[in-house]
Design a protein that fits this description.
The protein has 193 residues and is mainly alpha-helical. The protein has a domain at 3-99: Alpha Horseshoe (Leucine-rich Repeat Variant). Helices cover 69% and strands 0% of the residues. The protein contains twelve helices and no strands. Helix 3 (42-51) packs antiparallel against helix 4 and helix 4 (55-65) packs parallel to helix 6 (86-99). The longest helix is centred in the first third of the chain and has 15 residues, at 3-17. The protein is elongated and about 65 Å long.
Length: 193
């Protein structure tokens, strides 16, 4: 290994170690800096996602991969989308939005049914943002979600993705006590009329 390669590897490890810092500012800067290393950073980030016992490190590794728009980074992100910790999955979903490839967007469709409401709502938002094909069934399931904010996100996504929503679901949404859900249901109805 050349001296410059050793220096790069040491610097990347120093940046990864910054993922353990409290708060978000330092880990976020470290993730962005790792993203500038591009393909050279992917193996170290992939290793963190695979084997780090630290949720913080896995979460910020997923975040860093969102700054590397390469196939190797996308493959590592797919693994992060299946992480047992919801905060890792959440950061992976947001990274998918930053990379923005249709194939990767389809890989978050199952997360519209995630146990975490935060992951579900972010997955639905990203599916809508990326105009993901094949997300219609997941959006329709989310319209029956127990969490109001997931239902609201699903209604907005249905409008954005032009998902045909059954009238009975829209009627239920029109009677919701939350004005945002009623408004989104009306927008969906107008689009379908």
């Amino acid at each position: 290994m050349a001296a410059s390669d050793a220096k790069v590897a040491a610097n990347m490890q120093r940046l990864i170690a910054a993922f353990d810092r409290e708060g978000e500012a330092i880990p976020r800067r470290a993730a962005k800096a790792l993203g500038r290393y591009g393909a050279a950073a992917v193996p170290a980030l992939r290793n963190e996602i695979r084997s780090s016992p630290s949720v913080r490190r896995r979460r910020w590794a997923a975040h860093a991969l969102g700054h590397i728009p390469l196939p190797s980074a996308r493959r590592a992100l797919k693994r992060a989308l299946r992480d047992p910790n919801m905060s890792v999955r959440l950061h992976a979903v947001r990274s998918v939005a930053r990379i923005g490839t249709p194939a990767l967007a389809r890989s978050i469709i199952p997360l519209a049914n995630d146990p975490s409401g935060g992951v579900r709502v972010n997955a639905i938002d990203v599916l809508a943002q990326m105009k993901a094909r094949g997300a219609g069934a997941a959006i329709l399931r989310a319209l029956r979600d127990s969490k109001w904010y997931v239902r609201l996100s699903a209604l907005r996504a249905a409008v954005s993705l032009e998902v045909e929503v059954p009238r009975r679901l829209l009627t239920r949404s029109e009677r919701d006590p939350r004005s945002g859900i009623r408004s989104a249901a009306r927008a969906c109805l107008c689009r379908q009329a």
